[in-house]
Amino acid sequence: MSAYVRAQAQMGQVCFKKGGDENLRKAVEHFEAARSADPQHPDRDIVHGLAVSCYLLKQTDRAEPLLKELLRLNPTPRQGVRACSFLATICRSQGRMPEALRFQDQAMAIIGSDPDLRREFERQSPR
Question: In this structure, what CATH number is given to the domain that contains residue 21?
Fold first, then answer.
């Protein structure tokens, strides 16, 4: 079982890295297969790949609950910032401003507590 989950997750990563809608759709299929093979033990990297793929495909109705699940799975700082940023964007696009601001603040708190991520963010921010 674990070999199958790993193989599906790796195939999902390969498709994700290739980019483009068709590859993202394939990534979703692989991440979904990995996730459904062992639903009692959600893997943050699989949920992250699935959530980001759905978000990039503009499937926000699928991405939102996955991004929230990722936040409950002790994500890496980079995954947490990405999840919060995407959630803030989704909420903002739907007029849910208090929620958008909460996720934005959560992302900034993660950035502020991780020196490497903070330096990266500062390099990318306009001056």
Answer: 1.25.40
